[in-house]
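Protein Record: Sequence and Backbone Structure Tokens
======================================================
Tokens: labelled as protein backbone structure tokens, with as many entries as the chain has residues.
Question of interest: how does this chain fold, as expressed in backbone structure tokens?

___
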Amino acid sequence: MPGKRISDHQVTKYKELRGKHSQEVAAAKAGVSVASARRIESTVLLPSQKPARTWRTRADPLTEVWTAEVVPMLEAAPGLMAVTVLEELQLRYPQRFDGAVLRTLQRRVRQWRAEHGGEREIFFAQEHPPGRLGLSDFTVCDELAITIVGVILPHRLYQFAFAHSGWRHACIVLGGESFQALASGLQEALWMAGGVPEEHRTDSLSAAFNNLAEQEELTARYRELCAHYGLRASRNNPGVSHENGSIEARQGSLKTALDQSLLLRGTREFANLESYGQFVADTVRRLNARCARPWEIERASLRPLPTRRTVDFEEVDARVSKFGLISIKAAHYSVPSRLVGHRLKVRLYSAHLEAWLGGVKVFECERLRSSAQTKHPKRIDWRHMLPSLRRKPGAFARWMLRDAMFPRSEYARAWEHMSQRLSEREACRLMVNLLDLADRANVVAELAGILSALGERNELPDIEVLRAQFAPRPGWMPFVEVLLPATAVYDDLLEAA
């Protein structure tokens, strides 16, 4: 074949076949051309016995510059690429070296590095016995372009995997690489696996390691988590991701599998976060089916789980202000007004928070996170503020949190329309009455549609008409007439019996 040297084995094989077949057939069976077969028959030497060729078939274009200029460049900067060297030669010698020299220069540079270059790093493949090593890592999945009800979902995935079998678990993380996300994902993975490995490895997560403190390497919470499960914590060297390759490679395969499943699904839109989480779980389940046999071996080698899980939340104290708000991690949340003045224990989970008063959970909502665009996010539940607004509707006009409390954008546009057409007192009273109607009749979406239609017609809402429209229908009881039979009928029945 062109470009491949004929080996001694091919020559010997050809000569054996030549005694039984024609030259063309023997050449085809030995994998050489007919022209090469003729040359083989004209010589008695094997290819390895022929002297090495010392002549060139064409002139060397780098003869004058290789030793004098190219080699000093490579010695001074061993990382130079051949294309960079060629560009420098073209600047020094215009019109002398064209692009056709690049391939020759690449071969010469590669040969020089093999003979005179520095030592290169060698990778040592590791053997992972069953049940020894589990790995954790986070990966950003914004490139999947997942949308929830039309809104792009910026998120990460936490993934845990066993090094021996490749069994994995993944879950959605909406915030950063926090301890809550690590603890929740790790515990969920271990309880799904039904056992604990000897060692747990991560990269230099700030949730697990004090990267700026040398005296205490592990954070206190991560140390307690590992001690609860009997795990030995370890991490790879900073900036050396291949040391965590058993999980890094699976991050790519997980996102590829998710992308392929999304292509088959035909859409990247999901109704809610729970349905997307189920989609991720189904994809991971299919991936785990590929390693069912080694997983059975590894599962038998895992150590038993503790009797219970440990905490996977951060607990902070928060006092409810006179404005009906609590401030947690630069985010503001409204709470029921009956809690004003109380000090709450707030448990921060990865995706939500819970507020406890004594041993009773009194409030729960989705967790907010600050960003470069929104440094102090707010979650104002209009139902929390409505009882006080009914008593003081005039406060609505210049309320600092007014724009954050509207249940839907249609209500905000309706307020702008009313504030331009009515006096401040009338606009505030009408807006509060509309919110009160939406709450009492539970018609937030229906009322929003009506307000939008009125705004398009440049009309103001009539609260009495709306109250009548959404008032509960009066109960209607049908008239039932009961006809009692005569008592003589029963006498006739008894006589017949």
Summary: The mean pLDDT is 87. Residues 245-265 form the longest helix (21 residues). The first strand starts at residue 133 and ends at 140. Residues 14 and 29 are 8 Å apart (CA to CA).
